[in-house]
């Protein structure tokens, strides 16, 4: 820091008029002036001793200004954000839970993802895509509903599809809008046909049986009727089993052939195993080389629900029959017995 200093002597100055008058006048006036000057100097020395003049002649420095240290301002406390911490913890736990769930159900989740992708990209398919036939089996078939849209049955028949189950009804009121056409054209293409009913577990088995019977004109040579039991929205498993038994009994009595029970592996093991063993089982079990149930427990295996068959625009369920084609034909609705001839 720089400070200007003003000499103290500058504070005391003689007037310029007095100095100018000292150089003018006569000799007597000059002598008188000299005497007066001597007297004045004496008076001035009396009033201002030499020490005082020396003191006043020295510069008077201003006192040095020292900066006063200022304590730095204390930082403001950071606001607490408990909500953000809870949100981060919840997100972390959610990710951890999702990882554990995916690890346990990766196969099923991947299959659902593929099915969703197939549905979204269905418009870009040509209807000529083909899934290779499952090795180790000689009899292959499909099951269809209105979801598959228009089906070119002659084209399907040309690609080793030997049997087809066609959705006819669901619950107590729903009739598949494409059943009649699929039923007629599948037979015309030379494919062994059958019909199935999607069971609603909270509705009357008798009413559902009547709907199926009124919808499906099974004839000798057709495959047995099928009851699709897999819906999990039921209140009492015992009631569900009772209604299933009612449907099976009424339909068998009407057509004269034992129906086939369809279910997926998990549902069958939890709710149906040991209760309907007298009926043939059509088992859906995906992403496995073979069903885990013993071969004597099932006759048809639905090994994929995302197959492609030329003639069908989009994914379709693919099945194999455990046995020969002759064994499959042996399951068909029998011809009525000839009336005895009385002589």
Automatic annotation (TrEMBL):
Keyword field contains Phosphoprotein: no
TM regions (residue ranges): 86-103
Region (Disordered): 1-43
GO process annotations (BP): carbohydrate catabolic process; cell wall macromolecule catabolic process; peptidoglycan catabolic process
Chain coiled-coil ranges: none
Keywords from the UniProt entry: Glycosidase, Hydrolase, Membrane, Transmembrane, Transmembrane helix
Family in the record: Belongs to the glycosyl hydrolase 25 family.
Name by which UniProt lists this protein: Glycoside hydrolase
